[in-house]
Amino acid sequence: MKAPRLNRKLVLEGAVRSPDGAGGFGEVWVALGELWAEVTARTGRERAEAGAPVSSTSYRIVVRAAPVGAPSRPTQDQRFRDGTRLFVIQAVSERDAGGRFLTCFADEEVTA
C-alpha cells in the first residue's frame, strides 16, 4: 500500500455546548488542532431541501494516526475545516495494519 500524500492542512473542529442565555444551549465549534491530510472525493449527489438544491459529496480523508483518546485523533461528529469548506466526519477507521494512518469518511454539503 502506498503512503498517502498529506498535502492539505485541515483544521479539526469539535462541537461544544454553550448556554444561550435563555435557559437552552447552542452549539459552538472550536478548533482542536491542525492536521495534514490527503483528501479524495468518493461520490456525490444532489437533492432538494426546503425547495433549494443541495449538493452532497462524500470524501475519504487520510491523516496521521494518534492514540485513542488523544485530542488530535478525529472522531465521528467532529469536522474538518478547509477555509470556508466543512467536512463532517461520519466514521473513522485505521487505514493500515501498523496503525500509522487513519481514514476519515466525511461529507460536505453545499447549498446552491
Task: Characterize this entry briefly.
With 112 residues, this protein is mainly beta.
Explain this structure to me?
The protein has 112 residues and is mainly beta. The protein is 0% helix and 67% strand. It has strands at residues 8-19, 25-49, 52-64, 79-82, 85-94, 101-111. The protein has a six-stranded antiparallel barrel.
Search tags:
112 residues; mainly beta; 6-stranded antiparallel barrel; 6 strands
Topology at a glance:
Blueprint: E1 8-19, E2 25-49, E3 52-64, E4 79-82, E5 85-94, E6 101-111
Antiparallel strand pairs: 1-2, 1-4, 2-3, 3-6, 4-5, 5-6
The portion of residues forming beta strands comes to over 45%
**How do the strands of the widest beta sheet line up side by side?**
1-2-3-6-5-4
What is the β-strand count?
Answer: 6
| Rg value | 16 Å
Helix segment count? 0
- How would you characterize the largest beta sheet? 6 strands, antiparallel, barrel
Taken in chain order, the helices and strands follow as EEEEEE
Runs in which pLDDT lies below 50 for 5 or more consecutive residues are none
- Average residue-wise pLDDT: 90
Structural class: mainly beta
Query: What is the helix fraction of residues, given as a range?
Result: under 10%
Instruction: Label the overall shape.
Output: globular
Could you give the distance between the termini? Answer: 38 Å
